[in-house]
Amino acid sequence: MLDIGKTSNLPQPKCYFSTTTLSTYDDSSELPTKKLPFNLLHSAPYYHSMTLLSPSSSTLHTSLSSSQSKYARLQMPLLSLLTGDFFNKHIKTGNVLLFSSPLKLDTTSSEASFTLINGMLSIVCDRALYERAGLTGTAIPDPHARKHGTSKFRIELNLRLPSMLAGKKGFERILRAVETVFVGDISWLFYDVSAAGVADNDESLGKEVQIKEVKPETEDMEKVLVPGFRSNMTTNANQENDLVELLEWISLAAINSPRIQQGDLVDEIISRYEVPEISSNAVNGSSTGITTQSLTKTTATGFLTASFVADTFGNALLQSKGSWFALLVQGFADGKAFVVLKNADNQALSWDVEG
Questions:
Q1: Global pTM?
Q2: Contact by Cβ (8 Å): 132, 94
Q3: Which molecular function term from Gene Ontology is one that the record holds (predicted)?
């Protein structure tokens, strides 16, 4: 684990680094899902944004820009999800992903959020709503609250159980909580895993459905100072600073910062950043040097499923033999993010950020 962040009484974000030498793959069907760095791609069911950095001379940005994915934005109360055609078609028998915006109640300052993954409805709410709902859940310790304080609770309901039907005692109890406590329209992001997107003319989604399409955007970056990262990097004490600086450079490249461009002139009062020279040898401290390259940044934003991210990484891996690329992925909440750098020597460097 890399030591990133200032000393504080509050919990600091954690960054776990790993490195592995990738095997040679000729087809996407050969790609694993449980080995590093592939398991990072499936560490969450969906993500918010994804950025691919690669030399402009490669064709990676062309393959990503042609990728397509559709999702829907729904506007409906929680009760509508648990009754009618939507419940029977998408929850009891289908396979969908749902992510909600916070439900804020006008009468109080309470709020709740909801997710649905593999038929499991997860409700996160404060103590007041939890006690009013009367459903069994678990406390979520809040590291930013006072000692021994628990400000939120999580309720998990497996809606695919045979007992989750109208007329059953347990299900009717859930409906009463929804009708009396979790009341109000909610905005949802919806993805149908069974249909690999959103099926056309799906009336169960309601009248206020908006079909969204993920449209990757490309941006060319000229005269970028790129640190050399061909060396066999590890997490030993001599190279930990190099790993932190390399992650910082990738993050700056992802936002096309002028600090990494050749000829950048900025007052030292504003910024003292310099592109790092990564050590290629931990013994003599030799450097791999800095080169000037033209890069292409391809960004996709929306409701990105893990399969979409995995397909992007797999296509980039198959097409980048002898070259490098970096993939940055950001989740919706909890600070979940990861970065994977594949260098020209077929080595994958991975940073898994939490918090």
A1: 0.88
A2: no
A3: ribonuclease P activity
**126-173 pLDDT, tens digit each:** 988 999 999 999 998 766 655 555 678 999 999 999 999 988 999 999
Asked if 318 and 64 touch (Cβ cutoff 8 Å), the reply is: no
CA–CA dist 340, 250 (Å, integer): 10
What pLDDT does residue 319 have? Answer: 87
Same domain, 309 and 200: no
On whether residue 41 sits in a domain, the answer given is yes
Q: What do you get for the CA distance between the two ends of the chain, in Å?
A: 13
CB 340 within 8 A of CB 326: yes
Can you give the residue range of the structural domain that contains 123? 70-214
Q: Do 223 and 339 lie in a common domain?
A: yes
What is the C-alpha separation between 236 and 230, in angstroms, rounded? 17
Range name among 97-106, 273-282, 328-337 with the lowest pLDDT average: 273-282
Q: Are 262 and 171 in the same domain?
A: no
Residues 103 and 182 in one domain: yes
Give dist(CA 114, CA 101) in Å, integer. 8
Strand partners, 141: none
d(CA 314, CA 29): 9
